[in-house]
Amino acid sequence: MIAAPNEDHRPMFAACDINKFYLEHCPEIFPKKNPIRSRVGAFMGPKYDGKKLRSLVNGLLGDTALSQTLTNVVVPTFDIKRLQPVIFSTKDARTNPLKNARLADVCIGTSAAPTLLPAHYFETRDQNGKICSFDLIDGGVTANNPTLVALSHIERESLLHDGEFKDINLRETDPILVLSLGTGAAKHEEKYSATKASKWGLIGWNFHNSFAPLVDIFNDASSDMVDIHLSTLFQFLKCEQHYLRIQDDTLTGEESSVDVATPKNLHMLMEIGQRLLRKPVSRVNLETGRFEEIEGEVSNGDALSHFAIRLSEERKRRNK
């Protein structure tokens, strides 16, 4: 949304427009359904047909190509035909026509969460007529926390001495600032237990009180391992201030659902986000896996402002 260009080659959306966009369109993308019909329908196909999402994304982005993004983006997806991750990036799109997909196709593919939205198929073609096909599902399957994917992208350019990051030495973390924004978790709710799970079969592991335990477990495990790895790395290198992870792991009930798009819940999520900005910076406790506020630290909002100032100064330095 904020990397796609408009007609004036400026961002299609400002960051301040995102809340309004979600409030207006999420209830249509994830319409409220009868619980009984929803459970029965889950055995027949995806919970949502994805038509509104596809119409909306195609209408906004049209034929804008990935190579046209205003800044470098890296988008993880998973190809179910090849059974392997496919990582789309602006850099690759500008050098390889077969990776220069429509931005709309990449967005639809990386949002195609299994059981919720249909998988997405599309093709790309190079100047010689060669075709490359993609059968994609949610990028969260590949990297629910994509921070390491972004760092790997920088590392590859550094090793190849190619691209914007060719002069960055990852052994010296001083030029690197990492901002990782989480989408919330329900760790404190402790909604699953061995006692309950010991009685589950195929249905129980996939459908339990409107949640999907197996999906939750894989997603949280994948995301947490990335954060634990990066927290350990930056602490070891004595540069914790260069890695800012903003995450609320105290969500409960509908707050932690990925598709409860009622106006009440969306406004609640906005309030949670505002409260999170006022809370002190937290870091993951490597023993418990939970986020703990750091005594004497500034708020998340102030930390973000500090990051923005440093990035602005760096941009001015590069443009000299």
UniProtKB/TrEMBL annotation:
Keywords: Hydrolase, Lipid degradation, Lipid metabolism. One of its GO terms (biological process) is lipid catabolic process. Pfam families: Patatin (PF01734). Residues 1-151 form the PNPLA domain. Belongs to the patatin family. The nitrogen atoms of the two glycine residues in the GGXR motif define the oxyanion hole, and stabilize the oxyanion that forms during the nucleophilic attack by the catalytic serine during substrate cleavage. This is Patatin. It comes from Eucalyptus globulus (Tasmanian blue gum).
